[in-house]
Design brief:
By secondary structure, the chain is α+β, with helices and mostly antiparallel strands. The protein contains eleven helices and five strands; from the N terminus they run ααααααααβαββααββ.
Length: 413
């Protein structure tokens, strides 16, 4: 995996220039040091040697200047530039410093074939260069054999290669840590976005459950006012009051949910700011539906008598929202039909709900209002809610002329 190059800002250009400048300076220091040690023992008393030595020194300086110009291109063409610098260091002590730094830079790439090839070439160049200075310039034999020079060259090249590989290893480690940090940051951002999306989905589901219930009541009472001509003034006033109250409640709940969606900081509170309904409020929900003409019959199993209020908060909230959506769907698709609810338990392990209503012809009393608009997402939202709660939902396909919904919810802790 490669990282994108750093943008060329004035600060980065200055940092790159300084990084390159100190390396060039170090190469010059090494080169002049080698140059001084190579020629410090030579005496110009013998005129016959001046021309030959002058030519060697001129070649040394020429190769050094070429190496100085070639060295900055080692990153763009690492192998050719390093080979050229090593070859230039054979007759030139000034170029030897740049050759050594180039070998370290090449070894930092940690490629075995490149390291072996350049190491062999540098050993040969070192032996040849030492022979050139000793025989041509000094014209004396200090008793050093070629294999001794080879051992020294191998040791020096080994130190350069080890230094380069260490630097390369540190760079790889730093880059690996940087990539791990970037990957962890990307993963954290992905988790944050996923959490926001999940929370927004939950809020949307709550908004659908609440608003669909309120607006179905408004639509049903509005239909009654439109098509019922036999209502007394008192009944008309009461119906209009129900419409006004539910409209205000729906607007308030919509305003609250939209406010939470506008403020991302509220998406991690875990629950809506408004207290959530519980199973203890089921009777209020049933009475509200009965008041608008939907007959609801609730049958509690013996083991559930008096235990609705003791349901865990999460389970009670899910049960309330499911019953609310069932009643809303009944008003939409089977207005005027009785809704039968059966609630039972399974030894404190799971809660069972069975909801059913007839799909017979709609009674004339409310048929004139027409079917209420449907989002088509009611059952899908219920299925998702039940799944997230760890339960099961089943729509009974074998019920003839009847809609039957069965839900199993974990009792919780």
């Amino acid at each position: 995996m490669t990282t994108a190059p750093e943008p060329a800002t004035p600060r980065t250009r200055l940092r790159r220039f300084l990084s390159e400048a100190w390396r060039v300076g170090l190469g010059l220091v090494f080169g002049f040091t080698f140059f001084a040690f190579a020629y410090m023992d030579y005496s110009f008393d013998e005129a016959s040697d001046v021309d030959a030595v002058g030519a060697v020194i001129a070649l040394d300086m020429l190769c050094g200047f070429i190496a100085l110009a070639l060295y900055p291109f080692r990153h763009r063409f690492p192998v050719p530039v390093t080979v050229g610098l090593v070859l230039l260091s054979t007759p030139s002590t000034l170029a030897a410093g740049f050759a050594m730094l180039a070998v370290v830079s090449l070894a930092a790439r940690r490629r075995v074939l490149e390291i072996i090839g350049i190491s062999v070439l540098l050993v040969i160049a070192g032996i040849a260069g030492e022979h050139l200075v000793g025989t041509v310039v000094l014209r004396e034999d200090d008793g050093t054999t070629w294999w001794q020079l080879g051992i020294v060259a191998v040791v020096m090249v080994g130190l350069l290669v080890l230094t380069g590989m260490y630097i390369g290893g540190r760079r790889q480690l730093t880059e690996s840590l940087r990539q791990q940090v970037n990957s962890a940051e990307r993963e954290r951002q992905a988790q944050i976005h996923a959490a926001k999306a999940d929370e927004r989905t939950r809020i949307a589901r709550e908004m659908h459950d609440v608003l669909a219930h309120r607006l179905s009541l408004v639509a049903l009472h509005s239909g009654a006012l439109e098509y019922r001509s036999d209502l007394t003034p008192e009944e008309t006033r009461q119906t209009a009051g129900v419409i006004r109250e539910n409209s205000h409640l729906a607007l308030g709940e919509l305003r609250e949910v939209l406010g939470m969606l506008r403020d991302p900081n509220t998406l991690f509170d875990g629950e809506l700011a408004k207290p959530q309904p519980t199973a203890g409020q089921l009777q209020e929900l049933l009475e509200e539906s009965r008041a608008v003409g939907t007959a609801v019959h609730l049958d509690l199993a013996p083991e559930m008598q008096g235990r609705l209020d003791a349901l865990p908060e999460a389970t009670g909230r899910h049960l309330y929202r499911i019953v609310q959506e069932v009643l809303t769907n009944a008003r939409r698709h089977a207005p005027g039909q009785e809704v039968r609810l059966e609630i039972g338990g399974n030894g404190g392990d799971r809660l069972f709900l069975r909801a059913s209503n007839s799909l017979d012809e709609v009674p004339p009393l409310v048929s004139g209002a027409g079917p209420l608009p449907s989002s088509g997402l009611g059952l899908a939202g219920l299925a998702e809610r039940v799944r997230l709660a760890g339960g099961e939902l089943q729509v009974d396909p074998e019920a003839k002329g009847e809609f039957v919904l069965k839900v199993w919810l974990p009792w919780g802790r």
